[in-house]
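ugh ok so i messed up the first submission bc i forgot one of the chains. this is the corrected input, ALL of the components this time, i swear. 488 residues overall. if the numbers dont match what u have on ur side tell me asap before i send this to the collaborators (the ones from the other lab, u know who)
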Amino acid sequence: MMSTDPGVWIAAALTIFVWSFLFKENIFSRFAEFTFVGMMTGHLIVMGVSNIRSYASVPLSRGDLTVIVPVIFALMLYGAVSRRYYWLSRWPTALLMGTATALAVRGFLTAYIVSQSVGNINAARAVVGPDIMAALNSGIIIVFSICTFSYFLFTIGLKGAATVASRRIARLAMMVAFGAVIGNTVLAYMTMVLNRVIFLFIEWLGLA
Amino acid sequence: MKGSESGLTAKIRSNQPQVIYGLLLIFIIVPILYPIAVPMAVTEDTKKLYDFVEKLRDGSLVVVDGGVTVGWWPEMQPGAAAISQHLFNRPVRIIFIAFIEDTSILLHQMLTGPLIDKKGKKYGVDYVELGFMAGGEAGMAAFARDFHAVLKSDYYGEPIDTLPIMKDAVNAKSLALWIPLGGWEVEWALRQVGPHGTPIGCVSLAGNVPGFKPFLATGQLVGLLNSVKGGAEYEILMKKPGLGAVYMGGISLSHIVTIALVILGNVIYFVSRGKVKKEK
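and heres the new structure output, hopefully the right one now
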C-alpha cells in the first residue's frame, strides 16, 4: 500500500528531483541540492551551538574554571573574520594543528609502522612454513611491500635491470590494489542507489 | 577518432550515460520487486568478528562507534544493525557513541526503529547512547583515555555518572571490544584506541576495505564487515536474513551488469581503434 506519511512523500519527491539530474540539470535537481545543503548547514549549526552549551557554557555556569582557557582560545579563532585581529586566530589554529599532528603521528607510529613491520616479519616466517598456500601468500605480500616501498624512493637512480623490474612489480601491485578499491567503490555506490530504490518501491509505493 | 566511427559503436558511445543508467536501474529494481536468492559465501573476516562477539564474556563492555555522514549510512546500516542485534542477543553491555555529527541521530533511529530487538535490555544498565562527541580524532583519543572526563551527559542529556553501565566503563581498557562503523573512523580507532590494547572489529565502507586488510593480517583488527555485503554475511551467521539480504540481490545483478559494461566498453574501444588504424 502506498504510504500516507507526508514525510515519506517529501523524501520520495526529493529523491526523484535529485535523480532527474541524470537526465539533465534542472530546477528540481537544483532545488533538492540546495535543500540538502541548507538542512546540513542548519544541522551543523545546531550541533555547534549544542557543543558550545555542553562543553563551555554549562560547565562555566557550574563553576568549572578549567574550561576558561579553551573558551578563550575558541573566541580567538573568531579573530579570523577581522583584518585587524586576524593574528589572534593564529595561536589557536597552531594549537589545533599541533595537537592533531601529534595525535596522528603517535598513533601512526604504533598502528602503521611498528605493527605492520611485525606483520611483515610474521609473513616472512610463514614463507618457510609447512603450508604452501600460506607461504605463497606471504611471499607475495613481502615482495609487493618491498617493491612498492622502493617505488617511492626518489633519491636513487632508475638504471639497472633490478630497479626496473622492481618498479614494474610495484606498479602491478598498486594496480591490483586500485582495482580492489574501485570494485569496492562500485559496491558502495550501488548500495546507495539500492537504498533509494528500496525506499521508493517499498516504503513509498508499497510495491514489495 | 569519434568522427571516423560509424554504426552501432558510435551510437552506443554517444548515448552512454543514459544507456548505463537505464540498464542499471532495471537490474536493481527487478530483484527488489521479485526477490532472488543469491548464493553467498561468508568470508573469513566476517566470521572472525562474529566468533569474537560470540566468545565475549558475560557483562563485557562493547563500544559501537558511529562515524559516517548521512550519505554513507546506507552502506553501514545492514552491518551496524546486524552486529548491534548480535550484541543485544548476547549478555554484554553496549555503549553507542558517535564522533561524527550525523551518526548520533542515525544510531538513535536504528536503535528505536524496527531493525533492532533489544531483548528486554534496560537503558542505562545494559546499553546507553552517549550521542555525539566533538573533536574528531582528538575527541576519540581523549574519550578513550577517560570516558567521564570528556563526556558529561548521554544522548538524552542525563548525566552519565548516574547511569549504572558507566560505573564500570572508565576508559578504553575497560572494554572487551570497540566497533567503529565507517572509513576514517576505523583509522582513528586503530591509531587512538588500539594502543590501549582494546580489540577492534569494524564495519567498513567498501572503498576502505582493501586498505584495512593489512590490519586484519596483523591482528590489529579482530574482524571486519565489508559494507552491505559484510552485513548480509553477518545475517547469514545469525540465521536471520534482514536488510543486507534485501540489498544483495540488486547488488549482485548490478555488478554483473557493470562487469558486462566494462567488457563491452573495452570491446568497443578496441574495435573502434582498429577501424581508425585501418582508415589511416
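quick check: The two ends of chain A are 9 Å apart (CA to CA). that seems consistent at least. The CA atoms of residues 66 and 163 of chain A lie 57 Å apart.
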